[in-house]
Amino acid sequence: MGIYEELQARGLIAQVTNEPEIRDLVNKGGAKFYIGFDPTADSLHVGHFMALCLMRRLQKAGNTPVVLIGGGTGHIGDPSGRSDMRTMMTSEMIQHNCDCFKKQMERFIEFGEGKAIMVNNADWLLKLNYVELLREVGACFSVNNMLRAECYKQRMEHGLSFLEFNYMIMQSYDFYYLHNHYGCNMQFGGDDQWSNMLGGTELIRRKTGHDAHAMTITLLLNSEGKKMGKTANGAVWLDPNKTTPFEFYQYWRNVNDADVMKCIKMLTFIPMEQIAEIEQWEDSRINEKKELLAYELTALVHGEEEARKAKEISLSLFSGSGDDANMPSTEIDPAIVPENGIGIVDLLVACALAPSKGEARRLVQQGGVSADGEKVDSLDKTFTADQLKEGVKIRKGKKIFHKAILK
Predict the structure, then answer these.
(1) Residues facing 69 on adjacent strands
(2) Which residues are bridge partners to 234 per DSSP?
(3) How far apart are alpha carbons 87 and 186 in whole angstroms?
(4) Three-class secondary structure assignment of 3-41
(5) What pTM did the predictor assign?
(6) 391: phi > 0 → left, psi -120 to 50 → alpha, else beta; which?
(7) How many CB atoms are located within 10 Å of the residue 307 CB?
(8) Percent of the chain, pLDDT > 70?
(9) What is the rounded distance in angstroms from the CA atom of residue 305 to the CA atom of residue 323?
(10) How far is the C-alpha of 335 from the C-alpha of 337, rounded, in Å?
(11) Which alpha helices (DSSP H) does 254-285 contain, by range?
(12) 18, 67, 374, 404: least buried by Cβ within 10 Å?
């Protein structure tokens, strides 16, 4: 099985521009491909995870990755999949985030002479002359076609700024620049990037007469059609200081039953032959599948030792026999704790175990909350500052553990 066939078997390929040529190129290790990462935060998150894994798979098959950090496009912001405009970042913030990305990517991709390279589009985009760009590139784009692009449709309903409208041109120019200066012949990205990527292939064809290719990766959606990688606390980050290895492990340990095999196929490096065997396991072994998924992904992101510790902590917490030293925790500001104690509803919200007071009340009323081993059966339940100094261990549902500690 070639790498292209493996990507198909894992359900990773969404759309391609020319399947026979792309299949031949990647199977023979002839792709010099790039994936872009805009530095919108100081850490990569699960949304980037599939792209990183794809780069690793293709590199192992002999292809050459070019990691493009969007130090230039980060000044604009990608409107794809957005209903509002992204927050504008300073140049200093963008550079800091770029530096953080590189450290994390080195866990997945091998950089060095003859291996993967990393480039920053700030090096060329920020030097562009606007009039020259309009004459050289602008004439190659049809506004009619751009407005039909899927990446703009949602934003058109809420108001699309001219700043964001230029994003497609900037991303297309990146592909054109990388083709001319680094020999890139292919771009990969999320399926929501399809229109932007086609813009790049068309620009290269019109300016150079060369063929360039694009392939999009299937978006990681759960069985309800929602993007995976979000919790009540926000994104699931790859930075252990933002999402601890235990929290990362628990996220994958708690995925819906219907999503487990899809995640094992798309995200792990378990051989397809072994995956075929796992698919035949009895339904009673679903927790074993989840533990395998959680361990494999935690080891990939944080290393074998952290994965082992996360698994041990998880097992001990569920059995009720382990310590809580590594349990996810929230420091509670004493200013929000009244003299008579903080109520369970406010405490759940403060710990981001519920997104709102209404949701917190519903959890309690449905019997889904325990504190220090006892079910909370009243909305009037409070916890004093002295209790919080010791740490209040909260259990939400059957799977989520959290400790509230006074700051």
Answers:
(1) 37, 120
(2) 231
(3) 30
(4) HHHHHHHCCCEEEECCHHHHHHHHHCCCCEEEEEECCCC
(5) 0.77
(6) left
(7) 21
(8) 89
(9) 18
(10) 6
(11) 260-267, 272-279
(12) 374
Check: CB of residue 167 under 8 Å from CB of residue 96: no
Contact 136, 176 (CB under 8 A): no
Taking the C-alpha atoms of residue 404 and residue 398, their distance in angstroms, rounded to an integer, is 18
Q: Distance between CA atoms of 41 and 18, rounded to whole angstroms?
A: 34
Token code pair at residue 315:
């097992």
Range name among 9-23, 53-67, 311-325 with the lowest pLDDT average = 311-325
218 closest CA partner among 265, 260, 253: 265
* CA nearest neighbour of 135 among 92, 161, 169: 169
Residue 27 identity: N
Q: By 3-state DSSP, what share of the chain in percent is helix, strand and coil, each rounded to 5?
A: 50, 15, 35
**Closest by Cα among 20, 19, 31 to 57:** 31
pLDDT in tens, 222-279: 878 888 887 655 788 999 988 889 889 989 998 999 999 999 999 999 999 999 999 9
Q: Tell me the two tokens of residue 174.
A: 């990146």
